[in-house]
Amino acid sequence: MTQYTPMIQQYLQVKASHEDAFLFFRLGDFYEMFFDDALNASRILEITLTSRDGGSNGRIPMCGVPYHSAPGYIKRLVTEGHKVAICEQVEDPKQAKGVVKREVVQIITPGTVMDDQLLSDRDNNYIGALAIDGNSYALVVADLSTGEAKAYLRNGESATMMADLSRHRVREAVLDRATYESWKERIHSSNEFAASSEERDSVPDMFAEHVGLLGHPLQKKAAGRLFQYLKHTQKRSLSHMRKVVPQSDSVLMKLDAFSKRNLELVETNRTKGKKGSLLWLLDKTMTSMGARKLKQWLEEPLYVRNEIQARLDMVEALYSKFFEREEIRAKLREVYDMERLAAKSAFGNASPRDLLQLKVSLQNVPSIKEQLLQLGCAGSEKLFSQMDAHEGLAEYLENAIHINAPLLLKDGSIIKEGFSKELDEYRDASTNGKEWIAALEQKEREKTGIRSLKIGYNKIFGYFIEITRANLAGVPEDRYERKQTLSNAERFVTPELKEKERLILEAEDKMADLEHRLFLEIREHVKRFVPGLQELAGCLAELDVMQSFASVSEERRFVKPVISIRGIVDIVNGRHPVVEKVMDAQEYVSNDIRLTDGNSMLLITGPNMAGKSTYMRQLALTAIMMQVGCFVPADSAELPLFDQIFTRIGAADDLVGGQSTFMVEMLETNYAIRHATKNSLILLDEIGRGTSTYDGMALAHSIIEHIHDQIGAKTLFSTHYHELTVLTDTLPQLKNVHVSAVEEAGKLVFLHKIVDGHADQSFGIQVAELAELPSPLIQRAKHILHDLENEGKHSSPAVREVAASIDVPESQLSLFETPVKEVSPKQHKNEAVISMIQSLNLLEMTPLDAMNKLFELQKKIR
Ligand code: ADP
Ligand code: MG
């Protein structure tokens, strides 16, 4: 250490305790970084790497960013998952003996950002802390920018815990040191969230009350870890943090990560964007608080009858009372993000503009409450009585903050006249002084007879009288003192101007100081209302979500669903709300879904592209919409409450994750089978597609039997194995339905209508024809199918039927130009293999698929 300069020694000391963060080391008007931080930051931030004399062992790498533009750079680092420790000078450099004292005043991490620039309005920014005890773990998820915090208690191994963290969309996970060390590589490579270690897990005194609702010691530990971390990174008041609310899984519909992804609840699989998701469809919220609440609700649908019913009733009231709803929407439009405004007030970074927005928001609350009274349902009455408009605070802010208050504190003109007598006096002195000066200008013009004489001001010389060169002869040399010479004018002062200037500047100085002090007092005053404001914000957010539900329901002709006590699904003319919206509504074919106690499973057959997957998703989305409290896309709908929804839908390969379709399929199926109950909904779409035919069919068969005999969950099972349709003979709960399609003039037409009974044709070759595969190939396929059918050993009646329905021309045009008649059985087999290889679409196959195929082909030739 001794070879370094004293300042670098100081830097190294601070850096030693912040190894995992970029240390922004304040030097005058810059934040500087040194050593590895400098090398890395210059690369990430694309700023010039320089060097600095570090002491006797030469120059050290350095790079820096100007103090005033630091937020932009911090944003970039934090967005990329890094942490930034802000190290400020904490004593006046003029007073310092030796190196100026410096301290880290805040650590900004992905999960603790408070800056508007770093936050997205319509999304929460979550941080999660874990406490682990064997196979049990507690997870506390909090949003520092809003003050919310929830606690969960669950069982599971590390993979489950990590999945849980990503399911909650945390930006940062806080872990004990050992867990941090063992997970850090995996977390880093998955790149979903940042990880931090915090060994302390006792609840800091200042947060003792915050954990009052938590019953389980493990939950307290997780909360303790979180609060320790917040306390040590933020180093300031966190009084806006709310009590940690324990979440019981029994009141929520469970949705695993697979299903959330498959159903595209808040983002689509393909683009990872909101557009095309259920959230996108349902979001007509007017406030950011509402938008965030809606997303929360969609991520955690309810499994409590009363609460769902109350939401549905409230949505109904808003739905039917159009004018009240429009009024509420109009008022909500004027409400700013009160939740974050309250948090910022407490955190100490609310700007004058923020308090102005808080005031405007509060002023809209009384008329919102008035509309609530008109709605006349239990939910609206409850919200009405929970909502405290804080009229006193609104009035206080009305009187305190100037209507054109600036964005920044340093810009002044924040406080309204009449709020502080002292401030008004300084302001008077300043304005009077300025008027006096204006009058002086007039007076001096008259005295000297110089009409172009003017009084000006600049920062260096203060007030001056300026006289152009041409008029210098008229200057009263006895009274005017020369101050500055310009190319075409001279500037003068007089003793009385000097004296007035002193008074004006003094007043302005005091004014700025006083304004600053008053503003901090006002913010301190607001701070006392933070819990109440948060409560109010919560009510407004809920109302906003429900008006959004009502508005969408009206626009998209949704109906109020009935929660089934009999446990049946009876949906008449149901629709997939998102598919319906993105296509012309005229073209969407609605479908009924009926599942009863005696008939709880449907086996869905039909050609590719007919609408099987859409039909299955439709049911899941309808159930979720009901369980968040929204109307549903149908003419009428009765549904039971589902405790969980499991899905295995579509062929969304997790290629990036390196898992084959078939493996993903089996993982998801396994998860469903192990966790489903009689009250669950299971959607299995074309299970077994990813493996060889017989494997796949056998698996599908036994999975259906297992669900039928062991679980009894409501299940939709789609399949392209027509062989399975005979299962309805032995499984009483199972019913065959199929999506109808017809051949018109040799072309296939999808009707998208679900009808009873099994499909008698798979139309695979016709679909291939629609996809415009080369016509010799199609002809060849028809021929092979025909042969397969004649072999007849394995094909089902359905396959035979299809084969029979396809007319194979007498003289085939062979792909290999060998006349069909002259082919020996062995040659024929080889040819079939060649044509199969030719028809493989390698780009669409996983390695496992390819292995399976190869195995099949080899078997054929042997
Ligand atoms: P499958 O799973 O049977 O292969 P999908 O459910 O993926 O078929 O549907 C294929 C396409 O058909 C969808 O993308 C959609 O455009 C259209 N479609 C599905 N169901 C309907 C419907 N009920 N009405 C109109 N179009 C539909
Ligand atoms: Mg499908």
Automatic annotation (TrEMBL):
Instruction: Give residues annotated as binding ATP.
Output: G606, P607, N608, M609, A610, G611, K612, S613
> Which top-level group of life is the source organism from?
Bacteria
Record carries keyword Disulfide bond:
no
Q: Which PROSITE patterns match?
A: DNA_MISMATCH_REPAIR_2
Q: CDD domains from the entry? A: ABC_MutS1
Q: Which residues form the DNA mismatch repair proteins mutS family domain?
A: 680-696
Q: What keywords is this UniProt entry annotated with?
A: ATP-binding, DNA damage, DNA repair, DNA-binding, Nucleotide-binding
InterPro entries tied to this protein: DNA_mismatch_repair_MutS (IPR005748), DNA_mismatch_repair_MutS-lik_N (IPR007695), DNA_mismatch_repair_MutS/MSH (IPR017261), DNA_mismatch_repair_MutS_C (IPR000432), DNA_mismatch_repair_MutS_clamp (IPR007861), DNA_mismatch_repair_MutS_core (IPR007696), DNA_mismatch_repair_MutS_N (IPR016151), DNA_mismatch_repair_MutS_sf (IPR036187)
Function as written in the Swiss-Prot or TrEMBL entry = This protein is involved in the repair of mismatches in DNA. It is possible that it carries out the mismatch recognition step. This protein has a weak ATPase activity.
Which family does the UniProt entry place this protein in? Answer: Belongs to the DNA mismatch repair MutS family.
Q: What is this protein called?
A: DNA mismatch repair protein MutS
Question: What is the protein's species of origin?
Answer: Fictibacillus iocasae
The UniProt gene name for this protein comes to mutS
